[in-house]
Amino acid sequence: MRPRHDHGCLMLKNLLIVVVEADTVRAQSIAESLAETGDHDIRIVAKQSSLARRVAELRPDVVLIDIADPSRDIL
To answer: Which residues contact 30 (CB under 8 A, 6 or more apart)?
Structure first.
């Protein structure tokens, strides 16, 4: 979580995490593991088409994508 200052108090903000994965079983497994680390907003993006646009719309704090996935180059 990243810190945020609100009225002089330090507050923690949950992260928006995007998981880019076409395999739904693998994506769900990753999302479940991430959910165990905190109350984060986890989104799964399965389609490679319009990936850059979708990530730009979501404006995530973190994007997880397989390093071997060729679509990573468009981000």
So the answer is: 19, 21, 64
